[in-house]
Each structure stands twice: as C-alpha cells, then as structure tokens.
Amino acid sequence: MTGPVLKHLGETKLELGPATEPRHPWRRAEADGVVWLVLDCEGSSANTISRAVIEGLSDELDRLEETPPKGVVIRSAKPSGFALGADIGSFDDMAADGAAALLRQGHAVLDRLAALPCPTIAVVHGPALGAGFEIALACDRRIAIDGASFGLPEVQLGLHPGLGGTFRLPALIDPLEAMTMMLTGKSAHTRKARKLGIADEVVQERHMAAAVQAMLDAESDRSPGLKARALRFDQARALAARQMRSETRKKAPEDHYPAPHRLIDLWEEHGDDAQAMQQAEIDSFAELLGTETSKNLRRAFFLRQHLKEGARGEDGIAHVHVIGAGAMGAEIAAWAAVKGKRVTLGDVETAPLGRAIADARSVAKAAHLSDIEIRDALDRLVPDPNGYGLARADLVIEAGPETVETKRAIYDNIGPRMKSGAILATNTSSLSLDDLRDGAPEAARFAGLHFFNPVSKMQLVEVVRHAGTDDETARRLAAFCGSIDRLPVQLRDYPGFLVNRALTPYLLEAMVLMDEGVDKEVIDTAAIRFGMPMGPVALADQVGLDIGLHVGESLKAGLDKPLPDISDTLRGKVKNGELGKKTGAGFYDWSDGTPAPDADLDDAPEDLTDRLILPMLDACVECLRRDIAADPDSVDAAMIFATGFAPFRGGPLHYAKQRGAEEIAGRMRALASRHGARFEPDPGWADL
C-alpha cells in the first residue's frame, strides 16, 4: 500500500508509507504491521527538533510500547532533509528554564525509542544533523537515501552533542572516527556514512520501501568492533585522548573553545560506561549552554540567518557570463555551475580557459557531487573565448585585471553585445564603483559583486551599490548569491568596501611591527591567541603580497584617515616576485605547508594585540557611521564569514561593546600619542 508522496529532487518522490493521520509534528500510519512515524514540523520548510517534537515522539511511544508492531520506520516528510538539528532559538529559554532537567526528559524519550522491543529503522534523505541525527542514532538501523549526510555540528555552537550522541555514535562506529566527527562538527556524506557504519544501506528513493522490508526481515549484528573493544580500557582511551587534545589545541584553544575539550574529558573518563557518559553529557551540555563562547557562537549562527534573509526571492538569473578566467573568475564560474546556473566563461587567452575547466572538476568533487552531478555541472560550464554567451546572459560578472582603464575597455567592448535588462557586476576588490560606472552600459544595472578567494570555500559576497544602482539590481544580486549558497552583505561604495577597509590596517600594521623588529611569528601568534584563524603576516602571504600592496596603495589614496606606511620590505618582495603562497615564498616559506606559529609572547610589546586588532574595529565603526553597511549585525556577520574574525567573540562590534566603547576609544588615543594619527578613534565610537 503506498501513500501520499511529495516532490523531492525534481522528479524523485518521497515514499512516506501508507496514508498518515494528520497529526503534528509526527504523522502516524500503519500497514502490514509496520508503523511509520513521519516528522513534519508545521510552518517550516525544514524539520528542527523542538520540545514539541520530543513530546510528540513520547506520545507515539506510549502507543508503540502498549502494542509493539512488527517494526517502526522514522523519516521526514520535508524534501529538504531529515532534520537540521535542535531549535537553536529555544536555547536561551532552555538555559533559563533549567537545561539539565529538560535534557533528562529528552534523553528519557530517546532511551524509550532505543528500548522498543521491535526493530526501528530511520530512513534519512538530505541532512540529519545534531538532535536529528541523535534521533536516528536511537534507532536500530539507518537507511540512507543517496545524497544523505549525517553530522553532529554542536561544537560550532560552543557545545557538544546533548541528546545521546556522545555515547551512541562511539558505540555504533569506530570510536576515534566518532570523536573526530564530534570534535570537528563535520558531516559524513552518503558514501562515507556507509563506510563508517552509520548507514546500514544506501539506496535510491525508489528502492526505499523494498530496503525497509528486507531490513525488517533480516537479523542485525551490533557487536562492537575490535577497536571499540580496545578503547573500553582506560589506558587506551587516555592515550587517544592525549593525542586528541594535542590536535584540538592547535585549532581550538581551550580558553576560547571549551566544548571540544570537555567532550574529550567526558570520553576519556566515561567512554566505557554509557550510563555515566549520559549523565556527564547532560551536565556538561547544560553548563556549556551558559558560557559566553556558546552565546557568541549562537549569535554567529543567527548572523548567518540574518544574511540569508537578505538573499531570499527569485533572482531571474539563469545564465551567467564570466569575463576573465584567472583564479577568481574561474572559481566564480565553476561555483555557479556547480549550483545549477548555466555559465559561459570568456578570456582573451585560451590556456586559462582550459585550466578553469579542469579545476572546475575539483570544485565539483569537493562539493560532494556524485559522478553524474559532476558531469552535469561541467556540461553547464562552457568555455567561451569569443563571448557568444554575452547575448544570452542575465548576469555578466567581470573579473578582469584591477585597473580602471582595463575594466572600462572591457565595458566598452561588451556593452553593445549584452542583452537588454542584463546586470553587469564587477568583482573588483579595491576600485571605486563611482570611477567605473560611467563606462558601464547601464549605470542603474551596474554594481559590485565582490567574492573572496577561494570562492568555493569563502561564504561571504559583498554586494556593493554605487549612487546610481537601482534597488531591483541590488535585490537580484543578493538573491543570486542565495541561489548559489553564498551569504550576501549589502554595502554602499567606499574604498575597500567593508572587509578590505577593515582588514588592510590590520595587515599593514603587522608589517610596520616587523620593520620595528618584532618577529613575524610573534605577531601572528598574538593574533591567533586573540582568536583570529590566521595571523596577519601569514594572511598577507595567503592573499598574495601583490594584491595586498595594490589594495593598500588604493586605500591610502582614497581614505581621509591615515593608514600605516607601506613597508619597503613588502614592496621589495613584490618586486622580486616573492608573492606569498602562490609563489611558494613571501614573508614565510610555504614549501612545508601553511605556517603554524606558536611563539613565546613574554617579550612581545605590551600593546601588540591592540595595535593589530583595534584599527580593525575602528574601521568597522567608521563603516557603520558612514552607513556603508546597514546595521551592526551586517558588519559583524561580514567580518566573521569573510575574515574568520574570532567567532567566539560574536563579531568585532559585539566584542567592542562588550569590552566597552569608551575604554577602546581611550586606548586608541593612547596608541595615537605613541604611534601616530592612524590610531585616532573614529567619531563613531561616541555613538556605539
């Protein structure tokens, strides 16, 4: 007996079992002795695990315990996936209402699910994350529909799993693999999930019902593997835990990110006792929920949602033409094709086009596309040396060399060939749109679309409007960013826009410090210990010293406020072709991989960290005062998702408010008296 189906992935349908009772959030149905529980959270395109979901499951378990069926199948009615984790918006209320007690209630419900006397199967399509994955873990078996993914990303919120993941996942798969998933927050996509043992079967949706029946008819062996048995011994876990702590400290210092370290402690102490681990998990999660780190990382989550809200709506862009097959243009084209756009890529030379197409395969593979999806993405990306795609493109993205003259020459050439109503966007990182708009075919449909390198990994895109950009163009460009899974921040034209305006003084000040005799490892270590993902010297190398020099010179010429003097050492390295990572050497030697400085700061200048960080905050305040960005949340979101600004601090303006605007302004005045006018605080501090 087949029931209602929903569209999923185009023509694919979701098999939801027999006709279900119209109950929310769980819809129940029974046929041939099998009960189907279908999660369908009302008023949302995706399931999240709320108190109502857990209480609804408890009600269903009352019936199942009273009359056990032949089996139970749990799945989602949402085409978007199984469940996206807990309702993060409820966490503040949860902390106030007594998190430990609420967690114990949730654990009791999942324990009952795990203890049902009949087989239980979770059928997962799309993502099963956080508490959603933990519900699936409480089932006996899991069937993954091709394209499914599983993850416990709580560490990204300053937490660790809180509904049984800490003991159920290590009991299911290799405990070291389980700990790695929880410590990194990374997902296991379909094939890896099957290889690890998370998914018992991987099937196409059309074969799901048969796979469920076969699984219900089969015996399952859940005896632990050799490694799991070995790690029941305290000495083995202690050794593994020491190695985990060593690796974790490199990326997540305990002072800044306590959650992964707590998780390691829990596993080391209780990894051989699921009951003790369960209680320790509850107590630890409840405590972490109240930490500033978790509050600020949850703030970062909602900042992401804030940017996503600005990306909603139809973009009306089916065909994109990219001009310039250099590093940026090639990645923009590849990413747009991976995300479903038809893309033509033009360049004056054919060799870069060949490299771009070859590199696009790597971009598609890294995005976890199947072989068929990779083929389709590459089919959508067409090298176009003659620019034939211009006549059909809804959006033309110019990623040519960073000079006004070159870009204007490009616009003169393409203007007559663009179709009526098409948008022209420049990927410039440093040039003024006001200087470029006079050469654009239609000023109202010309704007900046500033991606960050590498496009396939960097989530933020600056959507920059000049004085004549119309509202519809800006809206469509933001929606385009959303359609290719990127986070747009809307800005007004200003030297460096927002991100480069804030980042440039940070990078240039590091070079001034080096000229003063401070070692580069000391400078970078200070920034990393503040919470930046990479020190400014290594970052300058990674961006490219030639690019940094160009942006620095452009901003010094365009800003009223003084910037640090550009280092002669920087100019010399650029002249000698030592451009950083892309040439193998800059300030660092990159032949052995990414630098990982960890210097002794005992003899570092006492004002070192403030000299690096406060000018960045000051630039953010300036951009807010000048209305370059719409609001403080946009500034904080842009800096977190483009620069990795210490997420556990909640963003530069949030950090400034917590530290105290008056205190920072006073500190900057003191730095100005010692080091010069570049440290004079912006007038906007008075209003922060």
Structure in words:
There is one protein chain. With 688 residues, the protein is α/β, with parallel strands linked by helices. The chain folds into 3 domains: 290 residues, Alpha-Beta Complex (2-enoyl-CoA Hydratase, Chain A, domain 1); 171 residues, NAD(P)-binding Rossmann-like Domain (Rossmann fold, 3-Layer(aba) Sandwich); 182 residues, N-(1-d-carboxylethyl)-l-norvaline Dehydrogenase, domain 2. 48% of the residues lie in helices and 12% in strands. It is built from 28 helices and 19 strands. The protein has an 8-stranded mixed sheet, sandwiched between helices. A 6-stranded mixed sheet has the order 3-4-5-6-8-11, with helices on both faces. The chain has a 3-stranded mixed sheet with strand order 7-9-10. Strand 15, helix 17 and strand 16 form a beta-alpha-beta unit. The longest helix is centred in the middle third of the chain and has 18 residues. The chain is globular and about 75 Å long.
Key terms for this structure?
single chain; 688 residues; alpha/beta; 2-enoyl-CoA Hydratase, Chain A, domain 1; Rossmann fold; N-(1-d-carboxylethyl)-l-norvaline Dehydrogenase, domain 2; eight-stranded mixed sheet; 3-OHacyl-CoA_DH_NAD-bd; fatty acid metabolism; oxidoreductase; EC 4.2.1.17
The largest β sheet comes out as:
8 strands, mixed
User: Rg from C-alpha positions?
Assistant: 27 Å
Count of helix runs: 28
* Beta-strand fraction estimate: 5-15%
Taken from the alpha-carbon principal axes, the silhouette is globular
Spans of at least 5 consecutive residues with low confidence: 1-12
Domain count: the total is 3
What's the helical proportion of residues? 40-55%
Q: What do the pLDDT scores average to? A: 92
Spatially, the strands of the biggest sheet line up as 14-13-12-15-16-17-18-19
End-to-end distance? 63 Å
CATH homologous superfamily assignment of the largest domain: 2-enoyl-CoA Hydratase, Chain A, domain 1
The CATH class name of the largest domain reads: Alpha Beta
